[in-house]
Amino acid sequence: MTAKESKDFLEEFTGLIHTTTDSALQMPNNSSIHKFLIGRIEGCLYTNLIVNFKKNLTQDNLEAIKVKKEECRNMERKFAKVFHKCEISFKNPDKFGEINKKFYEEFRENLKKISKTLHKFLLDLEKVMKLNSCEKLLNEFKKDIDKLGKELRVTKIANGFGVQIGFE
To answer: What is the mean pLDDT of the chain?
Structure first.
């Protein structure tokens, strides 16, 4: 991943947060909706990290970090289900909510047990993708989302029965 791609990822992630915030402003203020939106944003972030990690295990990169092809193949076998789940989520954003920070941290810790070198490569990728900045944006979004959305209000009562409701 190049510096430009790294900048682009942070810009894209920031844009996703802004777009989701704008959407949340138009929806009812509802904790179920908020959890769904948080899950999609969080899933997008961590899915992208895992997918980019796998995508960057090129021959050139493996040679640069001195990882033998067999070590990489072994790791890919052990994490085949993780990579498959991320690839499905990447192709179908409705599945993003299945990938979260806990899922990612378990992946990272298990990777460390298998290969310290590939773990370090993942940590370097986190820096390149500006994970800390992305997580800060995500945490701000989580903190602010409860203030977003419209409240349900009774707007009209008709002849003692029948109520008209709307969002304000």
So the answer is: 86
